[in-house]
Amino acid sequence: MKRFLPVDELARDGRFAWIHEAERQNDPRSGPQSNGNYQRAPRFSPEDEDSLDRARVLMHGIFMGEVQALEGAGRTCWDFDTGSGEDEAPYALKLDMARQCWDESRHVEISIKLAEWMGTGIGEFGEGRGLYQAACNPDPALRLTAVNRGIEGLAIDVFATMRKFGQAAGDPVLTFCEDWMLADEVTHVKMGSDWLRRLTADDPERRERALEFQRLVDKIFSGAGRAEESKEDARQFRKLAGFSDEDIDAAHVPLGVEEEREARMRLVAGSRTGPVPAETA
């Protein structure tokens, strides 16, 4: 099996439509956007006229995020030789990533059932693959930062938001499922934070490089504290996972449009990825 699988070679059947990220973000069912980042978009409540469409879009995005998190954790088990070198992964780390794959596969199954419960299904909305691209870094420490600190940290914020939405809507199924998955994400983020320290313990230069990358990832993916209705929940769950108040506050200093574009380019720089879909007019 190929190592460092390009983004255009991910296994998908005919239900999935991979589209340019800008096109996906511009889907009017997603609601208003800013900087192409849903975290900057105004939150919604069950009373909003477009709340059902927006909740379905977000649910489909959660499903695709879980698929790509599963792929990212699985690739970490396979892409690297077992060892303690900078381009290797310790056996214990691979065991943790295998455990995470099991969690993510459950999340995929839960998300499919939730999507059906909410009146949507696989393929109704386009797929963006930016999360997988962020999970392709050839340095295991930086990959863990992107996947477990960034993508899984983002999942904490999303699940906290959707749990609040379920509570406000009086939907016990949505509330229970989001709460269940939220607990797993806290474990995943903490696991990544712990391994980041262990992998760089004897290499100050690599640790500083990883921490600088971590700060970049936090700025792109941290939504905790941005949404009034879920900010305290998200902040507390991130702190349980190893974030400090200083980490969260620093991540909330906004980036300009061009700064954010450059930051996202750096996030996938060095990733072994193939071509991406062209943006349609």
Description of the structure:
The chain is mainly α and 281 residues long. The protein has one domain: Ferritin, CATH 1.20.1260.10. It has helices at 21-25, 51-79, 91-117, 130-134, 140-169, 172-199, 204-221, 231-240, 245-251, 257-268; strands at 81-82, 88-89. The protein has a two-stranded parallel ribbon. Helix 2 (51-79) packs antiparallel against helix 5. It is globular and about 55 Å long. It starts with 20 loop residues before the first helix and ends in a 13-residue tail after the last helix.
Structure, briefly:
By secondary structure, the chain is mainly alpha-helical. It has helices at residues 21-25, 51-79, 91-117, 130-134, 140-169, 172-199, 204-221, 231-240, 245-251, 257-268; strands at residues 81-82, 88-89.
